[in-house]
Amino acid sequence: MHPVIIGLASLGAVGHVSFDRAASYYDATRGLPDEAKRSLAEILSGELAQRGRCLEIGVGTGRIALPLRHLGIDLTGTDISAGMLDRLRENGRDGEILPVLLADAVDLPFAGSSFGAVLSSHVLHLIASWKAVVDEAVRVLDPKGVLLVDFGGGAPAPWSRWSAEILEAHGVPRIRPGVSTPGPIADHLGTRSTLRPLAVHMTARRSLQQDLDEWQAQIHSWTWPYRPDEMEVACEAVRAHAVSEGRSLSEEVDLHWTIQWWAFDLAGDSIGS
After folding, report:
1. Contact between 84 and 19 (Cβ < 8 Å)
2. What pTM was computed for the model?
3. What's the confidence (pLDDT) of residue 12?
4. C-alpha–C-alpha distance, residues 134 and 127, integer Å
């Protein structure tokens, strides 16, 4: 499959986070178990199958889009990272076409009411101007379309709270500049939409050492604002605390995780009121 880059939109200086630096390792660190991947694709394709043309903003390497396209969903993708779109091209399957555009989510190069659905996975928590993204998604949506959002966030681990406190005490708080829960979007849209949950449950195995390795290597976008030496000092403080408390760094634990999507169903005649 070779995605076709069918246009280049003007990329505004709006403080969005480009994942160019993560393109080479993104799939290895954001992948889902096969069963969860299939379940998620089935749930989302059930939402999208009768909606005609669909759009994913922040399509990235195709983690969500490619399985949906394989199930026959008419999907177009946009992203601000050329590197991630190059990786998507490498990930694809021969014989399938996924049109993609290098474009900013706050300035989509589409006419109004162009899509039956818009998807956003692990995007809105990165963007301080998230209301502008939501408004732009609503603009390109059919008046009775749906906005599907996954806010991201890892599985809660036994060390999540105390390690976050130590990291913050050493100057590396985990900051999400955008929106991380459905409530603010529901409030912003008001009577223009109704809200539904969509969820896939899975179990993952994880150790504190794995987290420490990824934090110090600055794999995740929340670590990128910090210097490598800042991350090293903060991670060493977490490591030292764990050792002093007799906690195992390498022991893996089962983390029960919900991949939580939210459907904002547009209310037709209320749009633009």
Report:
1. yes
2. 0.89
3. 35
4. 11
**Would you tell me the crossing angle of helices 208-216 and 228-244 to the nearest 10 degrees?**
160
CB 166 within 8 A of CB 243: no
Beta carbons of 98 and 88 less than 8 angstroms apart = yes
The side-by-side arrangement of strands in the sheet containing 4-8 is 4-8, 99-102, 75-79, 54-57, 115-121, 141-150, 253-266, 193-206
Residues 6 or more apart in contact with residue 169 via CB below 8 angstroms: 237
Domain ranges of the chain: 4-154+175-202+258-270
Token pair recorded at residue 181: 């829960």
Least confident of 81-90, 131-140, 161-170: 81-90
Torsion of CA 59, 65, 69, 72, to 10 degrees: -110
* Domain 4-154+175-202+258-270: top CATH class: alpha beta
